[in-house]
Amino acid sequence: SKILRKLFRPDTRRYIATANPIPRCPSQIFGQYLFLHPDLYGLNYYSFLAKFFNLDKWNKPYKRKSSNSFFCNSSLEKEYHDIFHSISFVREKSLCVDLPPKIYKTIYVEMGADQRRVYKEMKKSMVAELLSTQFTVANAAAKLVKLSRISAGYINDANSLIHFEVNPKLQALGELLDTLIDEYDQIGVWCWFKED
Fold this sequence. Notes:
Elements: H1 2-7, H2 30-36, H3 38-41, H4 45-52, H5 74-86, H6 93-96, H7 113-125, E1 127-130, E2 133-136, H8 140-152, E3 154-156, E4 161-163, H9 168-180
Antiparallel strand pairs: 1-2, 3-4
């Protein structure tokens, strides 16, 4: 939001769209509203926190057990919500878009030879090599992400991105889409990463 604020002139009309503006704590709205309308919650994040929230010794908002609330008191919670709703609105998905129904179908696909070899190397030792480039991971969580990417048809690190020559998963997706295209006008395909 800091970069976006610098890109827009103060008199520019601004909009954002999000499915979940406050994923964990109500304080997470500050950056979005700083971009949208800086006057509403103020310009200083720490002043915003001190005004509305219960803060621990590290100045982080926490839920008070007695009230099960992040807010200092109910009148400040109401003020926070009044400000929040003064420039926001909700649109139900059903009223916004005409999406086709979700289809859940598991399709098992055999990996290509290089893909299978690299997958096994990464799974066994957290190190794999492809086209003279060595890829490593530091921990189990990173390993799971890397294995997912290999199964999607590519491997990458900070410096390299290599696609496998044969990508059975992408071929299977193409075949599935060919069977659905006559039945549906629109098809949405969701994935974890852009390269997937």
